[in-house]
Specification:
Length: 413
């Protein structure tokens, strides 16, 4: 596929190098057109090296090829990132002062703008009108992410992560409606991996969780445009790029991190395997075998119910129930008292979370595997939803369900 990648003059231009790499590694032929201002942030040599194509922003370069007409005609896709307030205004008013704006006027294929600017600029009536004009003409304009901007400010206006822009671009070309990034501007906290409860300096109580499901959820949420915070307990896989990572080890550390993170989260997903119990005492030295061959006695105490606390905290705030979506995970096995779903339904009612993702677990199921099968239960009483496949595929289904629930309860303005 032939892609034109327009680069606007904002500090976020440095992130676009990663977006370019994603396009080229996927086998696409990319021509980069930076604005003159953007070259103050990232030079043309960088774009040429990464794209393998010559780079210019002048309509007078290679005039014999009529680039100001040809590039737009030949492009299967045009992506502009960062789309600054200035660039959006020029595109909306049909200006043609450089090679990029000429190309936008000549583009026959889909056009995707990924805005990035200061919050006040994004929220200004002029910018909003320009965005609506572009959308009305058929261009796709993503919602910017919310987060840290240049300097100490935070708010909507941050460039979505390169992986999210790439996913949106591919969806747009394929004609899918999810190019709009259903979780843009949302903040999602996800716990992943298994907690470890120390017994002595060398031993701990742990579980078989690899963290693969939590990481896959983080990737899916990031690709849906969310600002993702990953509370990472012990994991056998690395955290993904483009997410904030908070390292934890024990259930108590996870509790502290989760309660703090919930304060600014639209969604909290507790997919970590949290130890139900911890040793009542932790030895300062390694526990050794006794000469008299007596067995040590280890007393366990309950760990706090983090999911229940999150629900109680959410419901006790001024905004109350409904302003935040809380998703629990249940790793269940059937027994004489009921099957997996019976235990899960009881847990859903007991915990009070909005959605509960249920796994049937065992020594050869779910933990550490690349595939899984889940059932999503809703406290609202809607029919259970099944999802199976790779953990990437299942995570995409879970995030899609979360986006549906979240936007139905708390739509963006």
């Amino acid at each position: 596929m032939r892609i034109v990648l327009g680069v606007g003059g904002g500090i976020a231009a440095y992130k676009v190098a990663s977006l370019l790499r994603l396009f080229t590694e996927a086998g696409h032929n990319v021509t980069v057109i930076p604005t003159e201002a953007s070259t103050r942030f990232v030079g043309t040599a960088t774009w040429e090296a990464l794209s393998g194509n010559p780079v210019s922003n002048s309509v007078f370069h290679d005039v014999h090829q009529v680039n100001h007409v040809r590039l737009g005609h030949e492009a299967d896709l045009v992506v502009v990132a960062p789309a600054t307030a200035d660039l959006l205004a020029k595109a909306a008013t049909g200006q043609a002062g450089d090679l990029l704006t000429n190309t936008l006027l000549m583009a026959h294929g889909p056009v995707l703008f990924a805005p990035a600017m200061h919050t006040e600029m994004w929220q200004h009536a002029a910018t909003r009108a320009n965005v609506e004009t572009l959308r009305g003409r058929g261009a796709a304009v993503l919602e910017p992410a919310t987060g840290r901007l240049t300097g100490a400010d935070s708010g909507p206006g941050r460039l979505p992560e390169p992986e999210a822009i790439f996913a949106a671009a591919m969806a747009l070309v394929e004609g899918r409606q999810d190019f709009q990034l259903p979780l843009a501007g949302r903040t999602i906290t996800i716990s992943a991996g298994g907690t470890r409860e120390p017994l002595d300096p060398v031993r701990f109580l742990g579980n078989r969780s690899s963290g693969k499901q939590g990481v896959a959820l983080a990737v899916a949420a990031r690709n849906a445009g969310a600002n993702v915070r990953l509370l990472a307990a012990h994991m056998e896989v690395p955290p993904p790029a483009g997410v904030e990572v908070v390292q934890v080890e024990t259930a108590l550390q996870l509790r502290e991190a989760a309660l703090a993170a919930a304060a600014d989260s639209d969604v909290v997903i507790m997919s970590a395997a949290v130890a139900d119990f911890r040793p009542a005492e932790v030895s300062d030295t390694k526990i050794k075998k006794r000469d008299d061959r007596t067995d040590p006695v280890i007393t366990l105490v309950r760990n706090p119910d983090i999911l229940l606390e999150l629900v109680e905290l959410r419901n006790s705030t001024v905004r109350g129930e409904g302003h935040q979506l809380i998703v629990g995970f249940a790793a269940e096995t059937g027994d004489s008292d009921g099957d997996v779903l019976a235990h899960a339904e009881a847990k859903l009612q007991r915990k009070g979370c909005d959605l509960l993702v249920v796994n049937h677990v065992g020594t050869d199921k779910v933990f550490g595997q690349d595939t899984t099968s889940v059932v999503i239960l809703a406290r609202s009483g809607s029919d259970p939803q099944e999802a199976s496949g790779t953990k990437t595929e299942v995570s995409a289904a879970i995030i899609s369900r979360i986006a549906f629930e979240l936007n139905a309860v708390s739509p963006r303005a």
